[in-house]
Specification:
- This protein has 256 residues and is mostly helical.
- The chain has a domain of 144 residues.
- It contains 9 helices and 2 strands.
- The chain is globular.
- 39% of the residues are buried.
- The N terminus is likely disordered.
Length: 256
């Protein structure tokens, strides 16, 4: 015998036909919602090289006093969240591309290429807890491993007495774009208006990278030129593909 008497069945608050109609409506709404979500296409990230130029920068005075890249703050603020890159870093890339467009228009380098490289090299100056300040200065300084000829590593004996990279025995790559001292001494330029060419400043590093790439690749709007420039920067097919993929994502306004 059951210890508890059976409870009477509760009647539905809704008459059968109305409940069925409501249930059918819910099913239709849910199905429509699912279809709507499925029909919203993901933004396709282009393949091939070179990557697209991305969102156009507005006209600025590249010789404006102080940090000229500050003129791009409105542009970068509207783009930073969608591509997952800090505003100051974006301003550095946009400014470098704008300078090259005015001073070496035959190159055609896009800010997306610089962003792709910086993403791979240092996560836009944020590797290992570093941060990009309002003037473009990256602190703490980012230094690569000693280039001592170990497995998979080139051997480059010290060229700066440790003055730039802190290593008096072997060279190390420096800053958000990872220049070795010898290359920086030849190509480094000041871009943030403080009168010093500093590999640890993302403005200076981005413009220096742009100058170097344009010199090495010539026309970066052509596949051959872009590939030549990237291979000169880092002689690795895997590296080239990784930069291309990230730059291509930035070109359509999404995160890699």
């Amino acid at each position: 015998m059951n210890r508890y008497p059976a409870r009477p069945k509760r009647r539905s608050r809704w008459p059968g036909p109305l409940f069925a109609l409501l249930a059918a409506t819910v099913v239709v709404v849910l199905a429509y919602g699912a279809c709507s979500r499925e029909q919203q296409p993901r933004i396709a990230i282009p393949e091939g090289i070179p990557p697209g130029p991305g969102a156009a920068t507005p006209p600025i005075d590249i010789n404006a006093p102080g940090r000229s890249a500050d003129q791009l703050h409105g542009w970068s603020a509207g783009l930073a969240d969608s591509v997952g890159v800090g505003s100051t870093a974006l301003e550095a890339y946009g400014y470098a591309a704008t300078v090259m467009a005015e001073t070496k228009p035959e190159c055609g380098i896009g800010w997306t290429t610089l962003a792709g490289i910086a993403s791979v090299e240092s996560r836009h100056g944020t590797h290992a807890g570093s941060a990009v300040g309002p003037t473009g200065q990256v602190t703490p300084e980012i230094r690569g491993i000693p280039l001592d000829g170990g497995p998979g590593v080139a051997e480059i004996p010290d060229t700066d007495g440790g003055a730039m990279d802190g290593d008096p025995v072997h060279d190390r790559a420096m800053g958000p774009l990872q220049f070795i001292p010898e290359t920086w001494k030849r190509w480094g330029v000041d871009a943030n208006g403080d009168g010093v060419a500093d590999a640890d400043n993302i403005d200076d590093a981005a413009l220096t990278a742009a100058r170097y790439l344009c010199e090495r690749g010539g026309d970066l709007t052509a596949a051959e030129g872009w590939q030549s420039a990237l291979m000169a920067y880092n002689l690795s097919g895997e590296y080239l593909t990784l930069v291309r993929d990230r730059a291509s994502a930035y070109s359509v306004g999404v995160r890699p």
